[in-house]
Amino acid sequence: MEESKKPEVIDLADSGVTCDMLPEFSIKLSSTVFGLLEDETPFLCGGNDGLGDCFMFDKVTGGFNPIATRLLEGRFWAAAAVINNGKTLFVTGGTNGDVLRVNSTEYVTPFQETVKGPDLPVKMDQHCIVNIDDRTLLFMGGTIPNGGFSLASVRVSFSCLTFMNSKLNSFQTWFFDIEDEVFTPGPDMLSPRAGFGCAKFTTSDEREVVVAAGELFDKVDSEFLFLDEPDTWHRGPDLPLEDNQSAKMVPSPDGKGVVYIGGLNNKNLYELRCVAIGDDDCQWTKMEQELQFPRDDFAVFYIPNDYVHCRHS
Q: Stretch 231-251: mean pLDDT, rounded?
């Protein structure tokens, strides 16, 4: 996990477009959580070895500036979702500055006091969240203390600190009712996953689907959950990669697929498209766009076209 100060902008809809670099961050960041708020403003919090700071995008300067709003508990390897009609970032789980996995959550609204949220059912980090609708979130996987997982061990280094941390990668999923603050167990995934990508998209036959792909320890398979049949995960096509760690995923620009971005030792982008859903109806395709350098444990999100200057190459 190596921190970076350099953001970059890629046009996912047109490989012939080149965009200007954004200004560097004031500090190096990794493992942060993020969201695009109601006014389409990117908002970041946490990261590194337990950072509590938050940053907002400034359209005037074209960069990210620290703001007074902070997390109640600094954390990295957390996951977050935008809720409350785009006003609030719901920050969940992660690992704190004492290198302890946590089950706490918090509601973070820029320029307002941060509010403690409900505890997660279990302590978890490196999990993934998708907004199902305005009221429901789906929590998936991560590393947790017990129940439905496979055992692995990973050596993690931070500047002056090196430790061994046993990781129990989870199959588990949870539906979260935003209004009632209630967690309900969801269907177990087919594979245990942590540090993976997830996103929601719509197939050509108008079925809404959640896809989870990749994993912290070089897993390259994918799986689907149909939201009209939310009881069982279905196997998807493998990513065209030999290994993978801590990549990210976003919906395709038209919402009809997903884009899998980066990961350890990987600069490439891959798009998943589905004619329908079946063994031969979905496939990953390598895109012409690529990152300037490999990234893992990074943040990725859409920004409005007028936030950055882009041109055809």
A: 88
Residues 6+ apart with CB under 8 A from 157: none
Rounded CA-CA distance 38/192 in Å is: 33
Query: How far, in Å, CA of 219 to CA of 112, rounded?
Result: 40
What type of residue is 292?
Q
d(C-alpha 273, C-alpha 292), whole Å: 24
Segment 151-201, tens digit of pLDDT: 333 333 333 333 334 458 899 999 999 999 999 999 999 999 999 999 999
Strand duo 128-131 + 173-177: pairing:
unpaired
Question: What residue has token string 């902008």?
Answer: 9
Question: Who contacts 119 (Cβ-Cβ below 8 Å, separation ≥6)?
Answer: 103, 104, 105
Q: Which of 146, 150, 274 is nearest to 209 (CA)?
A: 274
**Residue 201 DSSP SS3:** strand
Q: How far is Cα 305 from Cα 313, in angstroms, rounded to an integer?
A: 16
State which H helix or E strand residue 174 sits in: strand 173-177
- Joined together, the tokens standing for residue 303 give 């920004």
